[in-house]
Amino acid sequence: MRQHTDTGKPSAPTTSTSPTSTSPTSAPATSAPAAPGDTARPLRYRWVVLAVATVTQAASGFFVQGIGAMAVPLQHALDLSTSQLGLLLSASQLVPLVGLLVAGELLDRYNERWVVGLGAAVVAAALLLGSLAQGYASLLAVLLVVGAGYSTVQPGGSKSVASWFDPAQRGLAMGVRQAGLPLGGALAAAVLPLVAVAYGWRAALVVGGLVALLGAGLFTFLYRRPPTAPPVRPATAPARGLAPGPVAPTASVRARLRILREPAMARLLFSGLALVSVHSGIAVLGALYLHDVTALGPGPGAAVLVAVQVAGAVGRIALAAWSDRSRAGRYRPVLVCLAAVVAGLVVLTTPAGRSPAAAAVLFTWLGFFGIGWYGPWVAHLAESAPPGRTGFALGLVMAVNQVAVVVVPPALGLLRDTTHGFTAAWAALAATTAVTLAATARRGAGGRGTPPRPGRHTAG
What we know:
Layout lengths: L39 H21 L1 H5 L4 H8 L3 H13 L1 H14 L2 H19 L5 H29 L2 H12 L1 H20 L1 H22 L30 H5 L5 H30 L5 H28 L5 H18 L7 H15 L3 H11 L5 H30 L3 H19 L19
Helix pairs in contact: 1-7, 1-8, 1-9, 1-10, 4-7, 4-17, 5-7, 5-17, 6-7, 6-10, 7-8, 7-17, 8-13, 8-16, 9-10, 9-13, 12-13, 12-14, 12-15, 12-16, 12-17, 12-18, 13-14, 13-15, 13-16, 14-15, 14-18, 16-17
């Protein structure tokens, strides 16, 4: 059986956790909270790791996920156009264009505990200090710093969960962890608009900062690397508390970017760009559509947005669990999401989409598939990464996705402002998603990194 390496692709846990296997020139890996020879407790601790990673994901993205829900009070308080509102969403995603690449390198060299914990702490500090912001420009600057901190949370949490779960349960685990983002969004949609209306948008930043601080503390104090983590072989002595990984710092950029030529990576790249655009569209236009087109009041509109985020959380878990059992491979659920999103967006462009009840159903449908896609997608991404490069692969593909996350919200906002309606925006998203579905479906639903289905083993 292949030995586990710290790439996010563990084999089934072994029955020994003794540190005697460490070579004389290696620094010992961070130990799991279990006595030598006791495998039951480390196996149970993976669920603690999953819970901590999920909460940290939700807490770090809490405020940013709530910006769309605060669209109406923000527009009134700061006199914003729809495109300016879109820029607020883009600001928090701009730095990760580079930050995700840097985070990927750090995660391949150092313990996720410190990389993720410090990143979440930066998010908290930026939001708390941002409560002193004086206007729109200051808020944009605050969100830029928030994006820098959040750059480590997304790939770091994914890698930490992938390293604790074997392929038979990894999809479900990744889905649960990724559900943290829409769950945080659901809570933000319910809380932040009320805070912004009652106490002002600056008070909403304070709430977001305190929530992020909670996530940073939990991950820093509770996360441990898995007991089967390999001994590391640093060229020089590591800094205390950090465990350098097997990454060669002299590797060329061109060689690293070559992984995007892998068929599985290409599918993931294009499908991720299409679906993250849909997610961004829901975030920036959803609240405004419900308010302007269906004439839903603030209370019912917020309830629909909460339902969208909850549906997204359920989708990430259910679709990822399906990918664990799909004999066609992990990419099959992603293809289903692409098709379902196209159908939902097309209906949203028709007169039927103007009905409050129909719009609520359609947005919930789009939440399940247009947000839920991330569960099986990120599990497939972690398994498709080259050995020893899981952190870099996660950071690279997520960084490319950030292009859409940065460009799409203001572009859709501008499209809405110039056409004075939402039909063109929904139609554009439907068209790009349909093209992606047709292009990636031709390459098949399986792919490298898909775990074997029959006769698979589980780790307890």
